[in-house]
Amino acid sequence: MSQPGLEKPEVEFPGGDAPEDLQITDLVVGDGPEAAAGATVLVHYVGVEFDTGEEFDASWNRGEAIEFPLRGLIKGWQEGIPGMRVGGRRQLVCPPHLAYGPSGGGHRLSGKTLVFVIDLLAVR
Fold it and tell me: Could you tell me which residue ranges the PPIase FKBP-type domain spans (predicted)?
């Protein structure tokens, strides 16, 4: 496996029934500083829909990582990134209540279970 941050990951299509709870899988364990709850993180990520495997967003496609405070993100990221170390790659499977809420919530991804592969590049 190549080092995270060097190339866009392929998201493995999970299949089966969507989980009811957040699923966290470390694909690569980093050895840098640890992300704490409420930290500001610099990440590269890919997001796909659980049901279809269709990619809906990827920082890789824009050619630059994105920095933001965890508190401003969906709950699945707020719960799933703390404890991760810089240099790591983690997959999060976020059910609707930890993503964009139930169907009809006004967001195009409302009601969907989402899969993210996140590379943690820096913690501030």
Answer: 38-124
Annotation: CATH topology of 23-123: Chitinase A; domain 3 (3.10.50)
Identify whether 116 is a catalytic site residue. yes
Catalytic residue list contains 26: no
Catalytic residue among 21, 26, 51, 56: 56
Active site residue 100: yes
Q: What angle do CA 36, 38, 78 make, to 5 degrees?
A: 85
pLDDT of residue 12: 77
The structural domains of the chain, with segments of one domain joined by +, span: 23-123
Task: Evaluate if pTM is beyond 0.70.
Answer: yes
Reply yes or no on whether 68 is catalytic: no
